[in-house]
């Protein structure tokens, strides 16, 4: 139970449960509920989007640990706008993951 049935503060969560709300503990719960499977979408994206040499170079620059986007920019010599686009495409393909604060890691 999200709260005491006697507490007025629990009325909202209880109403949501009555309407069929389900608890969410991770992103996978939402994907499952919406009948979306991330791996299938990533595989489809990989097939639809061809690899290029710049993407391969960025993947080679990413090591086991997080790498900041500025470091990737300096190492690759690419303009930050191009690098951002490449990283976004690699993320859509499920090949890299953004950790926040400009940090990227190879998946």
Automatic annotation (TrEMBL):
InterPro entries: DprA, DprA_WH, WH-like_DNA-bd_sf, WH_DNA-bd_sf. This is DprA winged helix domain-containing protein. SUPFAM superfamilies: Winged helix' DNA-binding domain (SSF46785). Residues 43-102 form the DprA winged helix domain. It comes from uncultured Thermomicrobiales bacterium. Pfam families: WHD_DprA. GO terms for biological process: DNA-mediated transformation.
């Amino acid at each position: 139970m999200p709260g005491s049935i006697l507490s007025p503060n629990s009325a909202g969560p209880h109403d949501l449960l009555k309407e069929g709300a389900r608890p969410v503990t991770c992103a996978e719960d939402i994907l499952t509920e919406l009948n979306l499977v991330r791996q299938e979408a990533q595989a489809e994206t990989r097939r639809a989007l061809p690899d290029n040499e710049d993407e391969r170079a960025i993947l080679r620059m990413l090591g086991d640990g997080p790498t900041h986007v500025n470091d990737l920019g300096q190492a690759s010599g690419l303009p930050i706008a191009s690098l951002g686009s490449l990283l976004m495409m690699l993320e859509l393909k499920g090949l890299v993951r953004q950790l926040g604060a400009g940090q990227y890691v190879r998946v």
